Amino acid sequence: MTLLTGHAQQVKSWPTALKGRGMARVILPKNELPPFLYLSKNFKFISSRKLDPTKIATFAATAESVPAALGRIPLKLRRLPELLEGEERHPIYITSTVDEFIQMGGSEHSAGYYSGRQKAVILRADKFLDVKRPDYRLLTHELVHLTMHGINGKANAWFTEGNAEYFACAFYGTSSYKFTSMTQSIKDRTKRLIQRDKPIRLYPLKDFVTRDVQRWIIINKNLDPSDRYSQYMTALLLVHYFYHIDPKGREKIAKYLELMEEGKKSIADQTHLFPEGEFIKIQNSIVSYWKPRGYQIFFSDPTQ
């Protein structure tokens, strides 16, 4: 069994909550022709049309809350990309039409996505700024990917997607997070994404934890729409397992992050997380934890 060394043995206490302001200070554009730039502390919102000042201030508060929330976690999760020379903020593109969104690499059926190549998040205005109740949890998910940019290329997909969903679950309001009631927050987040009246099928962990982003995407594309959250649900509950169920889980993740800094990402570098013969034990722990909390879980590959 791999011993934990260095700061991985001394993970500080987990945060209880982060209370946001609800609105961020935003510098508005003065030009009359696009592109229109709206500047907050860490982000540059780029739009092809002018945006409502109140809405963009609320939107920006949510965006700014994400690196703040990851910074509260006593693990090295906050790894925003390096800024280009002369830049002071990270870009978030807000597209005005579906066609514009698709031209920038988005999918017709999605509301936004994180582009590792562009080091940016691309979003649709009609899903986040032109509706009364925007899905800020989805916005949080994508911005977690941006905030974890320095980890995304090194970690396996379960870790990056699981953390994105974890913070989306913890998020509430417009810019606040609660980490003391994650069980209920997970149930609230997933009630529209899974069928609560049926057993929840998760992927067997032995194969699942080796998937990279490319394989993750391919699998999702080949799944029936009703099954497409199954990968995310598996990743979410696995991250929750390490953060809240396994007594040594947070220290193990700290070690995993140390190994990433050394440029390691193979399954061999996850052996302290998943020792040989422990996959079934972890699966059983997840099943046992959630059964009295309303989730009937079983592990079986939905693609087979």
Write a compact overview of the structure shown:
The chain has 304 residues and is of the alpha/beta class. The protein has helices spanning 53-72, 98-103, 125-128, 136-147, 149-152, 157-170, 182-190, 205-208, 213-222, 230-245, 249-261, 279-290, and strands spanning 17-18, 36-39, 43-47, 90-95, 112-115, 120-124, 171-172, 176-178, 200-202, 297-299.
- Report the portion of residues in β strands: 5-15%
CA radius of gyration: 19 Å
Largest sheet: 5 strands, mixed
Task: Kindly state the percentage of residues in helix.
Answer: 40-55%
Total strands: the figure is 10
- Low-confidence runs (pLDDT<50, min 5 residues)? 1-9
What value does the average pLDDT take?
Answer: 91
Lateral arrangement of strands in the main beta sheet = 2-3-4-6-5
Number of domains: 1
Order of helices and strands: EEEHEHEEHHHHEEHEHHHHHE
Oligomeric state of this protein: single chain
Count up the helices: 12
The structure class reads: alpha/beta
Global outline: globular
What separation lies between the terminal Cα atoms? 33 Å
Structure report:
The structure is a single chain. A 5-stranded mixed sheet has the order 2-3-4-6-5. It has 12 helices and 10 strands. Helix 6 crosses helix 7 and helix 10 crosses helix 12. The N terminus is likely disordered. It is globular. With 304 residues, it is of the alpha/beta class. A hairpin with a 3-residue loop joins strand 2 and strand 3. It has one domain.
Which helices and strands occur, and which strands form pairs?
Blueprint: E1 17-18, E2 36-39, E3 43-47, H1 53-72, E4 90-95, H2 98-103, E5 112-115, E6 120-124, H3 125-128, H4 136-147, H5 149-152, H6 157-170, E7 171-172, E8 176-178, H7 182-190, E9 200-202, H8 205-208, H9 213-222, H10 230-245, H11 249-261, H12 279-290, E10 297-299
Parallel strand pairs: 3-4, 4-6, 9-10
Antiparallel strand pairs: 1-8, 2-3, 5-6, 7-8
Helix pairs in contact: 1-4, 4-6, 6-7, 6-10, 10-11, 10-12
